[in-house]
Structures are given as C-alpha cells and as structure tokens.
Amino acid sequence: MKTLDDLLGEGVRGRRVLVRADLNVPLDRGEITDDGRVKAALPTIRALTEAGARVIVAAHLGRPKGVPAQEYSLGPVADRLAELLDTPVTLADDVVGEHAKAAVAALTDGAVVLLENVRFDARETSKSEAERAELARELAALTGENGAFVSDGFGVVHRKQASVYDVARELPAYAGGLVLSELTVLRTLTGEPGRPYAVVLGGSKVSDKLAVIEALLPKVDRLLVGGGMCFTFLAAQGHGVGSSLLESDMVATCARLLDEAGDKLLLPVDVVVADAFSADARTRTVPATGIEDGWMGLDIGPETVAAFGAALRDARTVFWNGPMGVFEMAPFAEGTRGVATAIAESAAFSVVGGGDSAAAVRLLGLPEDGFSHISTGGGASLEYLEGKDLPGVAVLSEER
C-alpha cells in the first residue's frame, strides 16, 4: 500500500490531487455543531497544499439520496475548512459538472477546491459497478494528466462507493495519514491488546452491534453494555422495561449472548427513567429491574456509573463505542459523562470508536487528550473489529 509520504516523495507541485475526505459533520440549522472530522482532515490537506499540490476534495454530507438538496450542501463545511486552513476554499456547485471542471481548471499551486456533496450524484452509492465506475472516471478526469488519489476518509472506507473504492482503480492511489493512523490503532486492538481488555458498548440497537459483540466476546475480558441496547438484554433476563427501547426480535439472541458471556458481560444496575422522550420530562432513578409501565429508560444511573468505573479502573485496553444515554439532553447526559471520564482517567490505551461517542466527548466538554485515540469512523471501526475487509482499504493494495 502506497502512502501519502510516498506521493509527497514523488513530488506534487503543480499536480492535481483528489482527496477523499470524511467531512460528514452534524449540522443544526446550517451551523456545524461538531467540526472534529473537518479538523481530522487538515493534516493531509495541509501537507499537499504546502507541497504545492492543486487539491480537489471530495466528500459527502448526510443521505441526500442521489439528488441535490440545500440542507445537505457542503457550503458550511467549505467555510469552516477555509477558516481552519487559513486559505480560501472554492466550493464547486456540482460534483463533476461544468462548475466543478471550471473550478478545478482555475486551481493554482497550493489551492483547494471542495466538490459539492458527492452523494448528490446517484452513481456514488449505486449498486451497479458500471455506474459507479462511470462516476469514478469523471472524478479521475478532473485531475488531468499525472493526477493522483489520496484516500483519507476513514469513516467511509467500509463502503464500496465511487469516490472511495472505484476511483482508486482509476488513478495512482495512496493512503492518507488519517487512514493510516486509524488502521494502526485498530491493529493494536485486534492484535495482542494489553489486558484486562474492556469494551464499552452503547447506542440504540443490539442489532446494530450484534456482529461486533459476537466477534469480541471471545477476545475481551469485560463487556459493558449501556445505552438503549441494554433494555433488550434486561428483557432477555425476564425484567420489564416499560416504554424503553426494545427490539423484541432480538430478545432470544440477547439471552444466548448472556449465557455465552457469563460474568464478563456487565449490564446496568440502575437507570434514569422519564415519562416522555423530552428534556422537560419527569425523571427518576430506579433499579434496572424495576422500570414501571409508562416510563422509559434514557440513561444509566449513578450506581451503574460507579460499577462500570470500577470495572474499567485496572483495564490496560479500552474500546468505547456508543453513548450510555441520550446525552444530547442534559438530564440524560451524566451516564455518558461518568463512563467517559472513567475511561479518560484510567491508565489504559483507550480508543473512542467514532460516531456519537466522539461527538459526546466534545459536546460534554471532556478532555480529548484523555483518550489515546478518538476515531473518525464508527461504522468502519466496528466492521474492522468484526474481522471484515474494508473495501476502501483493500483497493489501495491491489496490483495495477
């Protein structure tokens, strides 16, 4: 696999380089609420611009379903990227159309063009290899002669999409610094991690995490389960969960997992319940075995935070993916804050598995340097830990 350093060693001054970045940031009324992914893209883009490359950035935002939609425009991202780079960033009005071609043609050494949301083109996510390849050829054509492709969007490398996978077959392809650093960390987790090795899983659904639970159970020393997914496990133990999130079709699976895991799987002992899914709802803390009808669990309770903290205290490796509750609402943020703080204060090699967990660290004002690594790719991290190949990585090692 060739890397960004290899490309820089070849010389990039005056060359057009297409960079696939992950700039899929959360927005609230057009304002970026967490710019972590934009900041993570900076080192690779800066290295190229400082070396005189003419940089073309491709990225997506949300799921616009193959048609342009103003709410999914990368305009706010272009503005923030320009601020952080301290240099103008031109936003093309389209992906590979006339405006993109004109913007790229006007590039000078060290300048940056951000193509509009690549998912505005339905070919990006098409199941048809021919359609994806067609878009990939058009993206590659933007670089002209002697162009190159740098894959630096770790959050999308588990997707077989035109700007991630197919374009790497059209241009000389290199792994960016972010992708390389993410892979290095994940290889540590799948190799010989320091023990005890603890995994903390949260989020909404067991079904979303089933494959990674099954893959990790034989390998970890402790598996701590919180978030909405814990209620299906509690139901599998025969407890009522009131109006809490419940995947009825997963109860039998959870019962099997509990049997296989034995005492290495820890569930909440108390939960914060509410009478409505609202920051203004009535709340109380109850035993996890005593959730009454009409009440829903929206966070783990203080006794659970203490128990989880104790289970993490002597860990030498920790992987955390998924919040412990609805952290975006203040009454249900303390579980996530408490567990994250325990991880940050431990001496473990700690990895935050992207997505909502990474957003929670920043939203709750926790010290980012308290964690060994904060991933930019939740889905990609989980699939790697499941043992799956990541198409956007595998393609970089293909013989051409």
Describe the structure.
With 400 residues, the protein is α/β, with parallel strands linked by helices. Helix content is 35%, strand content 16%. It has 14 helices and 17 strands. It has helices spanning 4-10, 36-50, 75-85, 98-105, 129-141, 177-190, 206-216, 230-236, 251-261, 302-312, 334-345, 355-363, 378-385, 391-394, and strands at 16-20, 27-28, 31-32, 54-58, 89-91, 112-114, 148-151, 173-175, 197-201, 222-225, 265-266, 270-274, 283-287, 296-300, 317-321, 349-352, 373-374. A six-stranded parallel sheet has the order 5-6-4-1-7-8, with helices on both faces. Helix 12 links the parallel strand 16 (349-352) and strand 17. Helix 2 (36-50) packs across helix 3, helix 8 crosses helix 9 and helix 10 runs parallel beside helix 11. The mean pLDDT is 96.
Question: Which labels suit this protein?
Answer:
single chain, about 400 residues, six-stranded parallel sheet
Topology readout:
Layout (H helix, E strand, L loop, with lengths): L3 H7 L5 E5 L6 E2 L2 E2 L3 H15 L3 E5 L16 H11 L3 E3 L6 H8 L6 E3 L14 H13 L6 E4 L21 E3 L1 H14 L6 E5 L4 H11 L5 E4 L4 H7 L14 H11 L3 E2 L3 E5 L8 E5 L8 E5 L1 H11 L4 E5 L12 H12 L3 E4 L2 H9 L9 E2 L3 H8 L5 H4 L6
Parallel strand pairs: 1-4, 1-7, 4-6, 5-6, 7-8, 9-10, 9-15, 10-11, 15-16, 16-17
Antiparallel strand pairs: 2-3, 12-13, 12-14
* Strand arrangement, major sheet: 5-6-4-1-7-8
Net shape: elongated
Specify the oligomeric state.
Answer: single chain
Distance between the termini: 12 Å
Identify low-pLDDT runs.
none
Question: Roughly what fraction of the amino acids lie in strands?
Answer: 15-25%
Q: Give the tally of β-strands.
A: 17
Round the Cα radius of gyration to an integer and report it.
22 Å
Count of individual helical segments: 14
Supply the helix-strand structural class.
alpha/beta
The largest sheet, given as strand count, sense and whether it forms a barrel, is: 6 strands, parallel
The residue-averaged pLDDT reads 96
Helicity range:
25-40%
